[in-house]
Task: inverse folding
């Protein structure tokens, strides 16, 4: 082997090793970035296991640092063998879970019912197959009042999503009267975080 061939072989090996290190560093950087994004996304949340209440799932719920008056320990109301759960995290966070068994397309059904309402105007802020956030405005009938007497429109915000747990459909939703937008944004994160826990 000539000296030139030896140098070329050395450079090829060195180059391959450098690229391997570079790719490994990039992959490690991406993993760290993804992990950081997850931590930041649920910075003011706590993981809560629903298994003790008959649901094989976990959910991220606001903790006491979320600045919504959240209590340290979430409270779950559920009758044994019942089909409804209520999760309260302080006085300003009330989520409801409904068991719909083998029924499907609950979000589509909800959208259809909302569009049929005559007294409310519905605006979908997030519109996905299994998840919606919507703004509901009470329609005011009658002659237009003056700026002084004209009442402010009643606007509320709502979230509604479905999850499949153990092969059955569960709807996670805000209370009927809704909440302010900041509360619904937190509740939306909670619903999106629901993960089924597989029985081992």
Result:
């Amino acid at each position: 082997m000539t000296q030139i061939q030896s140098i070329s072989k050395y450079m090829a090996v060195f180059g391959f090793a450098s690229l391997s290190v570079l790719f490994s560093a990039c992959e490690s950087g991406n993993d760290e970035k993804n992990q950081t994004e997850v931590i930041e996304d649920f910075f003011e949340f706590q993981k809560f296991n629903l298994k003790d209440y008959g649901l094989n799932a976990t959910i991220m719920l606001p903790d006491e640092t979320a600045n919504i008056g959240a209590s340290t320990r979430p409270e779950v109301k559920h009758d044994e063998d019942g089909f409804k759960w209520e999760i309260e995290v302080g006085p300003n966070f009330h989520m409801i879970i409904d068991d719909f068994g083998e029924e499907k397309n609950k979000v589509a059904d909800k959208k259809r019912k909302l569009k049929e309402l005559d007294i409310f105007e519905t605006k979908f802020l997030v519109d996905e197959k299994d998840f919606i956030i919507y703004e509901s405005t009470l329609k005011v009938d009658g002659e237009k009042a003056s700026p002084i007497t004209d009442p402010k429109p009643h606007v509320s915000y709502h979230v509604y999503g479905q999850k499949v747990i153990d092969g059955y459909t569960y709807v996670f939703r805000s209370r009927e009267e809704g909440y302010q937008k900041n509360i619904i944004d937190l509740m939306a994160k909670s619903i999106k975080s629901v993960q089924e826990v597989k029985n081992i």
Helices lie at 3-41, 106-116, 181-192.
